[in-house]
Design goal:
Elements lengths: L1 E6 L5 H15 L3 E6 L13 E7 L7 H15 L2 E7 L9 H15 L5 E5 L10 H8 L5 H4 L5 H17 L1
Helix pairs in contact: 1-6
Amino acid sequence: MEILLAYVSVEGLTRRVAARIAEIAREAGHLVHLVDIADETLALAEGTGAVILAAPVHGGAYPQRFENLVRDWAGQLTYTRNALVSVEPALGRGRDRDAAEAVVARLSAATGWVPGYRHHVAESPGPADLGPARRALGWLGFGGPEQAADPTDWAALERFTRGFLAELVTS
């Protein structure tokens, strides 16, 4: 199946998340078009079997350019199998799932689109309590291996992706 995976990335994590989703989908035999929505000419092509949209949440909201794209595509998305992947590392550091769902609800209210499937990418259990400064130093290679460890819950993302892809095949 042909899948459009469109994303916006602010700090780079959403780009890595989208690339991993694309890799899993390609391994499953799907044709994936991975596109950064910073490309102003992006259009939803006819014949696309499914759309996965991925964006980070900062300050309780999605980036404006992502919201604009969703608003522009809302009508088409309604008739296309779709998923929303929200990248919210704060979920692993105390932010609750209800607050994350409230962000999706605000997006739906603003754009008219209700995602068919959704997943919130959070940090996995582990060194999530390092704090932003120590975590940043870890990403830069300072402070020891536990700080450099990627706290993203990749296993949960893989489970979601494989489940969504399985639904595409059976529906």
